[in-house]
């Protein structure tokens, strides 16, 4: 009962008692100028809140004000809490720390990727974490992935029919996808199509992943069940998706900061209907969020001339309607969850005060620590404990071709012409030793990486798509040192030089995430970026480079658990080596 219903019967009776004066509201927002999305206008009202729910919006004042916190909101403006419809809350930060940071900036509802939960936790522990996250002021919903986004060794087990069915049936799961494996679907994967059918039967949405898709492909995917896509990179691609009936998430992220151009393009194309549009930051690295989360996207939209109400609607009621929860989220009206942002002006979306589930997470510009801590050990997210050793014998690099970086995330094959049998590569070129090794020490794949850096001596990272260990560097001795130091701190990212660690980010949660608040992670990440830039890393986001080395939804060649993988031809070029 507690999980299936948002409020128990006794709570609903109490909400009615507040209207009748038998109980007092817990918070009263008087003289509020608020965004009424039904009338598409700013209206004045008094907003009564009892615990985590808005129980009345209108002209009346409560007959009972005993123990009620009354706030005069004259001169301020109130909008619903913002909704992030497409979060990847495992980019060194964790779902709890991201939600705490986002809520303080007005993003109080988050729909989260479940990939890391599926790959690294068993179902019981994953569902326990999702249950415990209900206790925080932010509202957390989830996706159900249908494919691993890479070539893993036990895909049939991890993405079995029974597993997918359990996830789809979970009350906190609102959608299937994102469909990074859509080429398999088009090629005839009926199991994935069955899962889409099941999601639709349960009135849940399907999130696409269709970068560069033609109009015909978009139409086919709509026929097969897709509802939304976040991969439009031009106004024309936004138009094509809208024409085929999609809801479109406009993206502004650390590797695709596209929103200003998308809005300019849409203006050029005469797109002035915004009801099928939403905003997403698509799981950006922590430093990207210095300027805010969804609030920074609203600000950009307003600066680009989008009508103010439409800018707020794209962050609130539009995603709420899309995900079929507008009866409790995305709107300031009787019966909704009390997620409210109090603004200093209509044009400034970063709130001065934030209520999330009726709790203050920010008050008059001051952040309030209202997020209860989690015991991460309960979910199996302890520090990484590797019971095996990396040896010099593992550091053998004889593959005839390597991986060349085209940008932060796109990699192509290239012919290796340098001598790679030595222990130290020259700093005169941008080629490094490169290895992916099983976190359990059972297999490895060794090659050469071109274009990552020219002076990086050694780096080890337990952060990767699959949680396996990435090793990069010019010096085998420094690669070994980085690995041993990473092992010593229980997982993380370590950069070494002259067999001394010069930069490290501990990732105590399974070697994948840190417990640090986002503000502290930003400083640690910036130090890592600075160290890598000084050693030749030329792109915008090394965290995403590490994440996507194994991601087979991107071209052209990837390093995976099964070996070197040709994405376009869907084949293993060189298998991983058993140790």
Automatic annotation (TrEMBL):
Its EC number is 3.5.4.2. Residues 409-569 form the Adenine deaminase C-terminal domain. Keywords: Hydrolase. One of its GO terms (molecular function) is adenine deaminase activity. Gene3D superfamilies: Metal-dependent hydrolases, Urease, subunit C, domain 1. Residues 77-361 form the Amidohydrolase-related domain. The keyword Disulfide bond does not apply. It is an enzyme of class 3 (hydrolase). It comes from the Bacteria. The keyword Hydrolase applies. It catalyses: adenine + H2O + H(+) = hypoxanthine + NH4(+). InterPro entries: Adenine_deam_C, Amidohydro-rel, Metal-dep_hydrolase_composite, Metal_Hydrolase. Belongs to the metallo-dependent hydrolases superfamily. Adenine deaminase family. This is adenine deaminase. It comes from Neobacillus notoginsengisoli.
């Amino acid at each position: 009962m507690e999980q299936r219903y948002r409020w128990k019967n006794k709570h609903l009776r109490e909400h009615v008692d507040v209207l009748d004066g038998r109980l007092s509201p817990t918070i009263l927002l008087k003289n509020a100028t608020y965004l009424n999305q039904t009338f598409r206008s700013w209206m004045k009202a008094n907003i009564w809140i009892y615990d985590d729910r808005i129980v009345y919006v209108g002209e009346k004042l409560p007959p009972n004000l005993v123990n009620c916190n009354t706030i005069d909101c004259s001169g301020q403006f109130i909008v619903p809490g913002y909704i992030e419809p497409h979060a990847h809350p495992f980019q060194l930060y964790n779902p709890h720390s991201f939600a705490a940071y986002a809520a303080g900036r007005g993003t109080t509802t988050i729909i989260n990727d479940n990939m890391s939960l599926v790959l690294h936790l068993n179902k019981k522990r994953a569902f326990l974490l999702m249950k415990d996250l209900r206790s925080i002021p932010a509202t957390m919903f989830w996706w159900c992935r249908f494919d691993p986004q890479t070539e893993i060794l036990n895909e049939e087990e991890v993405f079995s029919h029974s597993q997918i069915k359990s996830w789809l049936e979970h009350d906190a799961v609102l959608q299937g996808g994102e469909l990074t494996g859509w080429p398999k679907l088009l090629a005839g994967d009926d199991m994935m199509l069955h899962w889409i059918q099941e999601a639709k039967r349960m009135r849940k949405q399907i999130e696409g992943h269709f970068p560069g898709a033609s109009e015909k492909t978009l139409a086919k995917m709509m026929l097969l069940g897709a509802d939304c896509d976040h991969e439009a990179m031009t106004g024309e691609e936004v138009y094509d998706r809208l024409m085929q009936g999609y809801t479109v998430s406009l993206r502004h992220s650390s590797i695709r900061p596209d929103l200003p151009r998308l809005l300019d393009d849409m203006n050029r194309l005469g797109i002035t209907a915004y009801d099928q549009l939403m905003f997403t930051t698509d799981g950006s690295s922590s430093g990207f969020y210095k300027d805010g989360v969804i609030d920074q996207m609203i600000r950009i939209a307003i600066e680009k001339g989008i009508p103010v109400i439409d800018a707020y609607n794209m962050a609130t009621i539009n995603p709420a309607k899309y995900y079929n929860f507008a009866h409790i989220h995305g709107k300031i009206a009787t019966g909704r969850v009390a997620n409210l942002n109090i603004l200093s002006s209509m044009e400034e979306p970063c709130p001065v005060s934030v209520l999330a589930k009726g709790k203050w997470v920010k008050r008059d510009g001051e952040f309030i620590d209202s997020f209860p801590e989690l015991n991460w050990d309960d979910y199996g997210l302890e520090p990484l404990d590797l019971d095996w050793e990396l040896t010099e014998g593992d550091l053998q690099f004889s593959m005839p071709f390597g991986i060349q970086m085209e940008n932060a995330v796109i990699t192509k094959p290239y012919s290796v012409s340098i001598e790679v049998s030595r222990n130290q590569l020259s700093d005169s070129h941008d080629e490094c030793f490169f290895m992916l090794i099983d976190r359990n020490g059972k297999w490895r794949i060794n090659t050469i990486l071109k274009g990552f850096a020219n002076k990086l001596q050694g780096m080890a990272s337990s952060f990767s798509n699959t949680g396996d260990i990435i090793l990069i560097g010019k010096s085998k001795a420094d690669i070994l040192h980085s690995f041993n130091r990473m092992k010593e701190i229980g997982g993380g990212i370590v950069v070494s030089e002259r067999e001394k660690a010069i930069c490290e980010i501990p990732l105590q949660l399974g070697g994948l995430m840190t417990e640090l608040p986002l503000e502290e992670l930003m400083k640690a990440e910036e130090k890592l970026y600075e160290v890598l830039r000084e050693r030749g890393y030329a792109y915008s986001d090394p965290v995403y480079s590490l994440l996507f080395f194994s991601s087979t939804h991107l071209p052209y060649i990837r390093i995976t658990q099964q070996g070197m993988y040709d994405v376009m031809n869907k084949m293993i070029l060189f298998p991983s080596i058993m140790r």
